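Render Multiplexin, isoform I in 3D.
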Amino acid sequence: MAMVISTRAKLVITALILFFLLGIVLVTGSTKGWFNPNRYNGERVAARIQLRVAALNEPSTGDLQGIRGADFACYRQGRRAGLLGTFKAFLSSRVQNLDTIVRPADRDLPVVNTRGDVLFNSWKGIFNGQGGFFSQAPRIYSFSGKNVMTDSTWPMKMVWHGSLPNGERSMDTYCDAWHSGDHLKGSFASNLDGHKLLEQKRQSCDSKLIILCVEALSQDRKRKKREIGDGSSHGESESREFKTADEYAAHLENLLL
């Protein structure tokens, strides 16, 4: 009989301990928001609030059919790769400084490659006068997934930009507004082997260099603008396809207002 009572007592004590531990978990979880249904979804959304950078799948001379042609190439290759962002070419021109490509509201966002590796802590940090210095070896991938620093598709590890260190366009150093592949004309480029994105090295416009594309508008900002603007759903807007460089340029102008 004593043995039976002892066993029951153990069961009661065990149950009390379990209830006590469960109470601790519930109180702690409520305090820290463990049971908030939006908690993990919010973390996933936060992870997407960044600006992606990718390279076009092949190097190019300074003849990119103008800034509109370069932007459209970024859009088409991004779409084919399944990256449905608002991509623009990382190039200055007669109508834009390099630092103004991204909307002011997004310039504090981190800049990442297509695999999510952080390249710069913020967009505006690229233009702090230090030449867009990478804290470690650049890890930049093309839309097709190739590492431009190791793949032989890009024998010259240099990127066109046509800009001064502070992001202002450098007059007469962007290959006739990116319409010229003439060896007698030139533009500023940067040697990525030197861990700088905004080095001012003059290259002749017939050089075939890396063309970078950057998201001019974060995915989160793009979604909010659509909700406030024309009321179209995110899916409908993402499925829209632009057939010409002029159509995409008009879309960019409207979206980045």
